[in-house]
# Entry
Amino acid sequence: MPEEPEIDWDALRAAATDAMRRSYSPYSNFPVGAAAIADDGRVVKGANIENASYGVTLCAECSLISDLIMSGGGRLVAFTCVDGDGGVLMPCGRCRQLLYEHSAAGMLLETVSGVKTIDEVLPDAFGPRQLEEYAGR
Ligand code: THU
# Structure
């Protein structure tokens, strides 16, 4: 087993809380902030951005992935997400899939039940490998 990287979860949660304060959530009044560490050590962040057409809403994880890609790409090694009180929030199902696509192997998430890996929060995930395997038959 490779050793788990040493993550300063308090600092990462503080970054997520800072991002949460930029949330645009006039419809739900439920601000969300997310922060993650990329494999080159930089911190990327996002907040939820709602829309009058409710279904068009972007979750905090969506804007975090945009930040990841637009600031140079790479893979996520650690992630946390907070609600309007700064408390740890679980990423919704869709966002677990979004995070999976850009995760480093063994990516860690701070969850409501402790630190877990991406494989624990999205078991037997569908991902790029399934598409590659199918294409390579
Ligand atoms: N939300 C997120 O930003 N991320 C999640 O993982 C859960 C839900 C947002 C979407 C919406 O703006 C608000 O929380 C209420 O659902």
Observations:
- The first helix runs from residue 9 to 20.
- Residues 25, 28, 30, 32, 48, 50, 57, 59-61, 91-92, 95 surround tetrahydrodeoxyuridine (CB under 6 Å).
- The two ends are 31 Å apart (CA to CA).
